[in-house]
Amino acid sequence: MSDAKYEAIKKVSIVVSKGSLEGVYPGLIMANGARMEGIEANLFFTFFGLEAIIKKRMNKLKVATVGNPAMHIPSLLGIIPGMSAFATSKMMKEMDKLDIPPLGEFIEMVFDAGTKLYACKATVDMFHLSMDDFCEQTDSIINVGKFYEIAAGGQIIFT
After folding, report:
1. What is the pLDDT of residues 15-63, one digit of tens each?
2. Where are the domains of the chain?
């Protein structure tokens, strides 16, 4: 390893593209950690990641039990009615033990800490959504070009 000094990260832009609990929470945790360290943080929600900021759906996200090898159960068991609700309940209890807030509260917390939340325009158009569909913490609907402009000079992270 060389003696070169590494420049501290000053900005992160995190892309959230999955609409399950285990797909959304990593981005929120990373944004929260960034803000706690004084790092500028932006969250860009695209495709099914938009579920995290849609008012009517954000507090109904579940753990994906089908096709998720980290569940350590056969996919066939994942389709049993109630399995996703059971896995979600179990995960929420474990997160509660660690003081990780429920999704809506976490969104509010990272926003209040200064994280900017953006919805992907192409996805918003594809799903026939509008700004009225999103929680009040959503800063705006932006296209990919604007996202790159906002992310310029920082790290882009995909969750």
Report:
1. 999 999 999 999 999 999 999 999 999 999 999 999 999 999 999 999 8
2. 11-59+102-158
- Tell me which of 3.40.190.10, 3.40.50.11190, 3.40.1260.10, 1.10.510.10 is the CATH number of domain 11-59+102-158: 3.40.1260.10
Q: What angle do CA 62, 148, 37 make, to 5 degrees?
A: 65
* Tokens standing for residue 129: 């959504």
Q: Six-digit token pair at 22?
A: 């285990």
pTM score over 0.85: yes
CA distance 111 to 106: 8
The answer to whether the beta carbons of residues 43 and 31 sit under 8 Å apart is yes
Count of other CB atoms within 10 angstroms of residue 87: 20
